[in-house]
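ok so for the tutorial part 2 we go from a plain amino acid sequence to predicted C-alpha coordinates. step 1 is just haveing the sequence, like this:
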Amino acid sequence: MSKGAAGESLGTVKRVIEIIRFFGERGDATLKELSLSLSLAPSTCHRLLELLGRDGFVEQDTTHRRYRIGREMFRIAALVQSKHDIRAIALPFLRGLVDECDETAVLSLYLPSDGKIFFAEKVDSSLMLRYQLPMNTPMSVLWGASGRSILAFLDAGEIDRVYAAEGRAPASDEALPPRRTLDKELASIRERGFDITYGQKVVGAVGIGAPVFGIDGKVLGSICVTVPKTRIAAKDRPRLGQLVRATAEKLSAALGSPRHGSVKAIAS
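step 2 — the prediction. this is what the C-alpha coordinates look like for a chain of 268 residues:
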Protein backbone atom coordinates (compact mmCIF):
# COMPACT_ATOMS: atom_id res chain seq x y z
CA MET A 1 0.00 0.00 0.00
CA SER A 2 1.37 3.43 -0.92
CA LYS A 3 1.90 6.12 1.71
CA GLY A 4 -0.92 8.13 0.18
CA ALA A 5 -3.37 5.21 0.35
CA ALA A 6 -2.30 4.39 3.91
CA GLY A 7 -2.85 7.99 4.96
CA GLU A 8 -6.28 8.03 3.34
CA SER A 9 -7.25 4.80 5.15
CA LEU A 10 -6.14 6.20 8.50
CA GLY A 11 -8.09 9.36 7.79
CA THR A 12 -11.23 7.32 7.10
CA VAL A 13 -10.80 5.32 10.31
CA LYS A 14 -10.37 8.53 12.31
CA ARG A 15 -13.53 10.01 10.82
CA VAL A 16 -15.52 6.83 11.49
CA ILE A 17 -14.38 6.96 15.13
CA GLU A 18 -15.41 10.62 15.33
CA ILE A 19 -18.88 9.79 13.98
CA ILE A 20 -19.39 6.91 16.43
CA ARG A 21 -18.20 9.10 19.31
CA PHE A 22 -20.49 11.92 18.16
CA PHE A 23 -23.61 9.75 18.20
CA GLY A 24 -22.58 8.08 21.45
CA GLU A 25 -22.33 11.45 23.17
CA ARG A 26 -25.08 13.40 21.36
CA GLY A 27 -27.79 10.82 20.64
CA ASP A 28 -29.13 11.55 17.17
CA ALA A 29 -28.58 14.22 14.49
CA THR A 30 -29.38 15.21 10.94
CA LEU A 31 -26.74 14.95 8.24
CA LYS A 32 -26.31 18.74 8.34
CA GLU A 33 -25.84 18.79 12.13
CA LEU A 34 -23.23 16.04 11.91
CA SER A 35 -21.43 17.82 9.07
CA LEU A 36 -21.25 21.11 10.97
CA SER A 37 -20.18 19.52 14.27
CA LEU A 38 -17.35 17.50 12.72
CA SER A 39 -16.38 20.10 10.09
CA LEU A 40 -16.74 17.52 7.34
CA ALA A 41 -18.38 17.91 3.94
CA PRO A 42 -21.96 16.57 3.84
CA SER A 43 -20.95 14.21 1.03
CA THR A 44 -18.16 12.75 3.20
CA CYS A 45 -20.53 12.30 6.15
CA HIS A 46 -23.13 10.67 3.93
CA ARG A 47 -20.57 8.23 2.51
CA LEU A 48 -19.37 7.23 5.97
CA LEU A 49 -22.91 6.90 7.31
CA GLU A 50 -23.75 4.60 4.42
CA LEU A 51 -20.66 2.54 5.25
CA LEU A 52 -21.58 2.28 8.93
CA GLY A 53 -25.21 1.61 8.12
CA ARG A 54 -24.43 -1.52 6.07
CA ASP A 55 -23.27 -3.34 9.20
CA GLY A 56 -25.85 -1.86 11.55
CA PHE A 57 -23.55 0.51 13.45
CA VAL A 58 -25.66 3.51 12.45
CA GLU A 59 -29.31 3.65 11.43
CA GLN A 60 -31.58 6.33 10.02
CA ASP A 61 -35.02 7.42 11.11
CA THR A 62 -36.41 8.01 7.62
CA THR A 63 -39.48 9.87 8.93
CA HIS A 64 -37.46 12.61 10.61
CA ARG A 65 -34.29 12.18 8.51
CA ARG A 66 -32.11 11.75 11.59
CA TYR A 67 -29.28 9.30 12.22
CA ARG A 68 -28.47 7.47 15.44
CA ILE A 69 -26.45 4.56 16.87
CA GLY A 70 -27.59 1.26 15.35
CA ARG A 71 -28.49 -2.03 16.99
CA GLU A 72 -25.20 -3.72 16.13
CA MET A 73 -23.32 -1.02 18.02
CA PHE A 74 -25.57 -1.54 21.04
CA ARG A 75 -24.95 -5.30 20.84
CA ILE A 76 -21.18 -4.87 20.82
CA ALA A 77 -21.30 -2.30 23.63
CA ALA A 78 -23.32 -4.74 25.76
CA LEU A 79 -20.79 -7.50 25.08
CA VAL A 80 -17.90 -5.25 26.07
CA GLN A 81 -19.67 -4.20 29.27
CA SER A 82 -20.50 -7.79 30.21
CA LYS A 83 -16.91 -8.95 29.73
CA HIS A 84 -15.26 -6.06 31.55
CA ASP A 85 -16.66 -5.86 35.07
CA ILE A 86 -16.01 -2.61 36.93
CA ARG A 87 -14.20 -4.57 39.66
CA ALA A 88 -11.68 -5.86 37.13
CA ILE A 89 -11.27 -2.38 35.63
CA ALA A 90 -10.78 -0.83 39.10
CA LEU A 91 -8.26 -3.37 40.38
CA PRO A 92 -5.13 -1.87 38.69
CA PHE A 93 -6.09 1.57 40.01
CA LEU A 94 -6.47 0.21 43.55
CA ARG A 95 -3.09 -1.52 43.28
CA GLY A 96 -1.49 1.69 42.04
CA LEU A 97 -2.97 3.58 44.98
CA VAL A 98 -1.64 1.02 47.47
CA ASP A 99 1.78 1.17 45.79
CA GLU A 100 1.77 4.92 46.45
CA CYS A 101 0.62 4.94 50.10
CA ASP A 102 0.73 1.30 51.33
CA GLU A 103 -2.69 1.58 52.95
CA THR A 104 -5.71 -0.62 52.22
CA ALA A 105 -7.71 0.69 49.24
CA VAL A 106 -11.30 -0.32 48.52
CA LEU A 107 -13.82 0.18 45.73
CA SER A 108 -17.37 0.80 46.94
CA LEU A 109 -20.41 0.64 44.67
CA TYR A 110 -23.75 2.37 45.21
CA LEU A 111 -27.05 0.48 45.19
CA PRO A 112 -29.68 3.07 44.16
CA SER A 113 -32.66 0.82 44.87
CA ASP A 114 -31.57 0.37 48.52
CA GLY A 115 -29.74 3.63 49.10
CA LYS A 116 -26.80 1.55 50.33
CA ILE A 117 -23.21 0.86 49.34
CA PHE A 118 -21.11 -2.29 49.45
CA PHE A 119 -17.37 -2.95 49.33
CA ALA A 120 -16.89 -4.56 45.94
CA GLU A 121 -13.09 -4.91 45.62
CA LYS A 122 -10.03 -4.18 47.75
CA VAL A 123 -6.25 -4.33 47.82
CA ASP A 124 -4.65 -4.71 51.25
CA SER A 125 -1.75 -2.82 52.72
CA SER A 126 1.47 -4.79 53.26
CA LEU A 127 1.65 -3.48 56.83
CA MET A 128 0.78 -5.70 59.80
CA LEU A 129 -1.93 -3.44 61.21
CA ARG A 130 -4.83 -3.32 58.75
CA TYR A 131 -8.58 -3.83 58.75
CA GLN A 132 -10.76 -6.74 57.71
CA LEU A 133 -13.60 -5.19 55.73
CA PRO A 134 -17.01 -6.86 55.20
CA MET A 135 -17.07 -7.38 51.43
CA ASN A 136 -20.31 -7.42 49.39
CA THR A 137 -22.43 -6.49 52.41
CA PRO A 138 -24.90 -3.57 52.00
CA MET A 139 -24.23 -0.76 54.47
CA SER A 140 -25.10 2.86 55.07
CA VAL A 141 -24.09 5.55 52.60
CA LEU A 142 -24.39 8.19 55.34
CA TRP A 143 -21.39 7.10 57.38
CA GLY A 144 -17.71 6.86 56.50
CA ALA A 145 -15.78 8.50 53.69
CA SER A 146 -16.61 5.64 51.31
CA GLY A 147 -20.30 6.49 51.67
CA ARG A 148 -20.33 10.24 52.08
CA SER A 149 -18.10 10.83 49.06
CA ILE A 150 -20.94 9.17 47.10
CA LEU A 151 -23.78 10.83 49.03
CA ALA A 152 -22.43 14.30 48.19
CA PHE A 153 -23.10 13.72 44.48
CA LEU A 154 -26.63 12.30 44.72
CA ASP A 155 -29.57 14.55 43.95
CA ALA A 156 -31.46 16.21 46.80
CA GLY A 157 -34.44 13.85 46.62
CA GLU A 158 -32.20 10.81 46.89
CA ILE A 159 -30.38 12.31 49.87
CA ASP A 160 -33.76 12.97 51.53
CA ARG A 161 -34.76 9.32 51.07
CA VAL A 162 -31.49 7.98 52.46
CA TYR A 163 -31.45 10.43 55.39
CA ALA A 164 -34.98 9.51 56.46
CA ALA A 165 -34.15 5.79 56.57
CA GLU A 166 -30.89 5.94 58.55
CA GLY A 167 -29.85 5.87 62.19
CA ARG A 168 -26.65 6.16 64.21
CA ALA A 169 -23.09 5.56 63.02
CA PRO A 170 -22.23 1.83 63.16
CA ALA A 171 -18.82 2.25 64.86
CA SER A 172 -18.89 5.55 66.77
CA ASP A 173 -22.65 5.46 67.53
CA GLU A 174 -22.85 9.17 66.82
CA ALA A 175 -26.26 10.53 65.86
CA LEU A 176 -27.09 11.86 62.43
CA PRO A 177 -26.31 15.57 62.12
CA PRO A 178 -29.21 17.93 61.41
CA ARG A 179 -30.02 17.98 57.71
CA ARG A 180 -28.77 21.56 57.31
CA THR A 181 -25.43 20.60 58.89
CA LEU A 182 -25.17 17.54 56.66
CA ASP A 183 -25.82 19.69 53.57
CA LYS A 184 -22.90 21.95 54.55
CA GLU A 185 -20.65 18.91 55.03
CA LEU A 186 -21.65 17.51 51.63
CA ALA A 187 -20.99 20.88 49.98
CA SER A 188 -17.47 20.82 51.45
CA ILE A 189 -16.93 17.33 50.02
CA ARG A 190 -18.00 18.53 46.57
CA GLU A 191 -15.67 21.52 46.87
CA ARG A 192 -12.52 19.55 47.66
CA GLY A 193 -13.44 16.36 45.77
CA PHE A 194 -12.86 13.93 48.65
CA ASP A 195 -14.02 13.24 52.20
CA ILE A 196 -12.22 12.41 55.45
CA THR A 197 -14.02 10.70 58.34
CA TYR A 198 -12.86 9.41 61.71
CA GLY A 199 -14.00 6.08 63.14
CA GLN A 200 -17.56 6.23 61.78
CA LYS A 201 -17.55 2.78 60.16
CA VAL A 202 -14.42 1.20 61.65
CA VAL A 203 -13.27 1.97 65.20
CA GLY A 204 -9.90 3.75 65.24
CA ALA A 205 -9.74 4.23 61.49
CA VAL A 206 -9.41 7.30 59.31
CA GLY A 207 -11.31 6.94 56.04
CA ILE A 208 -10.46 9.03 52.97
CA GLY A 209 -12.76 8.60 49.97
CA ALA A 210 -13.45 10.18 46.57
CA PRO A 211 -16.33 9.64 44.12
CA VAL A 212 -16.22 7.52 40.97
CA PHE A 213 -18.52 8.46 38.08
CA GLY A 214 -19.94 6.28 35.31
CA ILE A 215 -20.40 6.83 31.60
CA ASP A 216 -23.69 8.68 32.22
CA GLY A 217 -21.95 11.21 34.46
CA LYS A 218 -23.70 9.95 37.59
CA VAL A 219 -21.85 8.84 40.70
CA LEU A 220 -21.67 5.04 40.85
CA GLY A 221 -19.24 4.45 43.69
CA SER A 222 -16.08 5.58 45.43
CA ILE A 223 -12.46 4.73 46.07
CA CYS A 224 -11.40 4.91 49.70
CA VAL A 225 -8.34 4.20 51.81
CA THR A 226 -8.72 3.05 55.42
CA VAL A 227 -5.83 4.03 57.69
CA PRO A 228 -5.25 3.42 61.43
CA LYS A 229 -5.36 6.88 63.00
CA THR A 230 -2.05 6.17 64.78
CA ARG A 231 -0.34 5.86 61.38
CA ILE A 232 -1.35 9.12 59.74
CA ALA A 233 -0.49 12.62 60.90
CA ALA A 234 -3.00 15.43 60.43
CA LYS A 235 -0.64 17.22 58.02
CA ASP A 236 -0.53 14.15 55.75
CA ARG A 237 -4.30 13.74 55.36
CA PRO A 238 -4.87 16.39 52.64
CA ARG A 239 -2.01 14.92 50.56
CA LEU A 240 -3.50 11.45 50.83
CA GLY A 241 -6.91 12.91 50.00
CA GLN A 242 -5.55 14.37 46.77
CA LEU A 243 -3.96 11.03 45.91
CA VAL A 244 -7.29 9.20 46.44
CA ARG A 245 -9.13 11.85 44.42
CA ALA A 246 -6.64 11.58 41.54
CA THR A 247 -7.04 7.78 41.51
CA ALA A 248 -10.85 8.05 41.49
CA GLU A 249 -10.67 10.53 38.60
CA LYS A 250 -8.47 8.17 36.60
CA LEU A 251 -10.91 5.31 37.17
CA SER A 252 -13.83 7.56 36.15
CA ALA A 253 -12.00 8.40 32.94
CA ALA A 254 -11.37 4.70 32.26
CA LEU A 255 -15.11 4.07 32.68
CA GLY A 256 -15.89 6.73 30.08
CA SER A 257 -17.25 9.35 32.45
CA PRO A 258 -17.52 12.92 31.11
CA ARG A 259 -17.07 14.16 34.71
CA HIS A 260 -13.56 12.89 35.49
CA GLY A 261 -11.40 15.72 36.74
CA SER A 262 -14.48 17.88 37.42
CA VAL A 263 -16.12 16.74 40.65
CA LYS A 264 -17.03 20.18 41.98
CA ALA A 265 -20.42 20.22 40.24
CA ILE A 266 -23.15 20.75 42.83
CA ALA A 267 -25.78 18.04 43.22
CA SER A 268 -29.08 19.22 41.80
